[in-house]
């Protein structure tokens, strides 16, 4: 969705992510993110708004492109990568009592291009380009869970700035802080929550 | 998206029994469970091939290395 007009735009979600996409994030996204982080750090009381993911480097994940247990999704629009996500389909299981131990799709990393993040563009005095990139990628993860036979079960460790999005907008259940993962909040979807999300409820 | 191919899998009664049991326990179809096993095997093999080790830790924090062939 165009962030300025609110009009829907054609975009493509694809799972044939390649090293070239990782390089694109480093070459085109990272300089913008660092410039915005620098600008935010120089503003009073803005330190907490600095994105926690400014140091991510997707090119380090090249070896994982060959693994069946890992899946990458990209979202492209107007010839540019607008968002990217890594999910894992093994080695993670549910923690909610009613589905404890059952497999789920784990969202390991998800990132929108910096020009789609309002606070970053605000710091640079520029308008946000697109909205709902993270939402579309999240939806792809839910569908992947159904495709895997996990019935929509999904889990993730939320960065502090994204907790509201996952709990209030996506409808995930906040299960608790994980001391083994930087005390990040573990959030989870049950099959029923996934169905409601996909139905737009 | 990747297209899927069909194969026939021959299992002993005991193996089929374990597959049935795990399918119920994990709320997965037998196909989904076999695909999970393949993914996990490849993941473990890739990490061991690059020199990492796989350990299990018991409740007393005792670690035991698992040898994967």
Structural overview:
The complex is a heterodimer of chains A (201) and B (69). With 201 residues, chain A is of the alpha+beta class. The relative contact order of chain A is 0.15. Chain A has a seven-stranded mixed sheet, with helices on both faces. Chain A is built from five helices and seven strands. The mean pLDDT of chain A is 90. Chain A has a single domain (12-199), classed as Aminopeptidase, CATH 3.40.630.30. In chain A, strand 6 (173-178) and strand 7 form a beta hairpin. Chain B has 69 residues and is mainly alpha-helical. Chain B has one domain (13-65). Chain B is 49% helix and 12% strand. Chain B has helices at residues 13-26, 30-49; strands spanning 54-57, 63-66. Chain B has a two-stranded antiparallel ribbon with strand order 1-2. The model of chain B has no long low-confidence stretch (mean pLDDT 89). The chains are: A alpha+beta (201), B mainly alpha (69). At the A-B interface, loops of A face helix 2 of B.
Topology record:
The complex is a heterodimer of chains A (201) and B (69).
Chain A: E1 12-14, H1 19-41, E2 70-77, E3 80-88, E4 105-112, H2 118-123, H3 133-148, E5 154-158, H4 163-169, E6 173-178, E7 184-189, H5 191-198
Parallel strand pairs in A: 4-5
Antiparallel strand pairs in A: 1-2, 2-3, 3-4, 5-7, 6-7
Chain B: H1 13-26, H2 30-49, E1 54-57, E2 63-66
Antiparallel strand pairs in B: 1-2
Helical element count of chain A?
5
Terminal Cα span of chain A:
19 Å
Which regions of chain B have little confidence, pLDDT < 50, spanning 5+ residues?
none
DSSP strand content of chain B: 5-15%
Structural domains of chain B: how many: 1
The general outline of chain B is extended
Measured by DSSP, the beta-strand proportion of chain A falls in: 15-25%
Rg of chain B from C-alpha positions? 16 Å
CATH topology of chain A, what is it called?
A: Aminopeptidase
- Proportion of residues in helical segments of chain A: 25-40%
